[in-house]
Design a protein that fits this description.
This protein is of the alpha/beta class. The chain folds into 2 domains: 198 residues, 2-enoyl-CoA Hydratase, Chain A, domain 1; 48 residues, Lyase 2-enoyl-coa Hydratase, Chain  A, domain 2 (Orthogonal Bundle), CATH 1.10.12. It contains 11 helices and 10 strands. The strands form 2 sheets. A 6-stranded mixed beta sheet has the order 1-2-3-5-7-10, with helices on both faces. Strands 4-6-8-9 form a 4-stranded mixed beta sheet. α1 packs parallel to α3. The termini are far apart.
């Protein structure tokens, strides 16, 4: 009997659901799961019929980060090169999520710990079940936050809260994460996938190219002066204004009818 994939790839009408699928290990990452997720994201990027992506976890948690059985010095006989692990697996994954030219929604259905928390934060919109917790667990094993953790925490929360969460490994509830501005929303557990599905369906019928340009503009903002960001907006708005989706949006607005957008730059 073939082994079930470490990432399930479900194609729906206009969007895809990618599910981390190692529930017996709380979906902790090994190399096979990294490669499967990156391959699934590549498929989504190339598929014009896929206009949004949902990322979630199987079982009772979202992701416990790195599977430490694969990086245990007592098993390996030496300390692993964790910098190489980041360079080879985590850093490309984070950039792939950030650079995907369609919205990525993360449905955090349980604990998101270590790199698992930071992979969730790399997504465009994060919705957590109220039972979910975000844990920067690295200090418990004498490491620093990685997978973008020091970047997300500092920019979203400020230095004081970033240091406290990183140094103490204190679990942050989804409701507090939403109240602090780290994620978008916390919802009742039983409503999580309904909320995420409704959002994905809306994105699947939206102006996909405009969403991609919006992501680019917002990602650029934290490193730009106001003057620089105004020029980014000028350039990207010029591109957006040349699209058929803009023509359709204006026509629909003036005709007081729903717009029918495509997932492409032009028809």
């Amino acid at each position: 009997m073939p082994t079930e994939s470490p990432v399930l790839h479900e194609r729906r009408d206009g969007y895809a659901v990618l599910t981390l699928n190692r529930p017996d290990r709380l979906n902790a990452f090994n190399e096979a799961q990294h490669l499967a997720l990156r391959a699934a994201l590549n498929e989504c990027a190339k598929d014009d019929a896929c206009r949004a992506v949902v990322l979630t976890g199987a079982g009772r948690g979202f992701c416990a980060g790195q599977d430490l059985f694969d990086r245990d010095p007592t098993i390996l006989g030496e300390n692993p090169d964790l910098g190489r692990t980041l360079e080879t697996f985590y850093n490309p994954l984070i950039l792939q999520l950030r650079n995907l030219e369609k919205p990525v929604i993360c449905a955090v259905n349980g604990v998101a710990a270590g790199a698992g928390a930071n992979i969730a934060l790399a997504c465009d919109i994060v919705i957590g079940a109220k039972s979910a917790k975000f844990i920067q667990a690295f200090s418990k094993i004498a490491l620093i936050p990685d997978a973008g953790g020091t970047w997300w925490l500092t920019r979203h929360l400020g230095e004081a809260r970033a240091k406290a969460l990183a140094l103490t490994a204190h679990p942050l509830s989804a409701e507090d994460a939403a109240n602090w501005g780290l994620i978008w929303r916390a919802v009742d557990d039983e409503k999580l996938m309904d909320e995420v599905t409704a959002l994905a369906e809306a994105f699947a019928n939206g102006p996909t190219h405009a969403y991609a340009l919006t992501k680019k503009a917002i990602h650029a903002a934290s490193g730009n002066t106001l003057e620089e960001q105004l020029q980014v907006e000028r350039r990207l708005q010029h591109e957006a204004g040349q699209s058929d989706n803009y023509k359709e949006g204006v026509a629909a607005f003036l005709a007081k009818r729903p717009a029918v957008f495509t997932g492409k730059k032009s028809r």
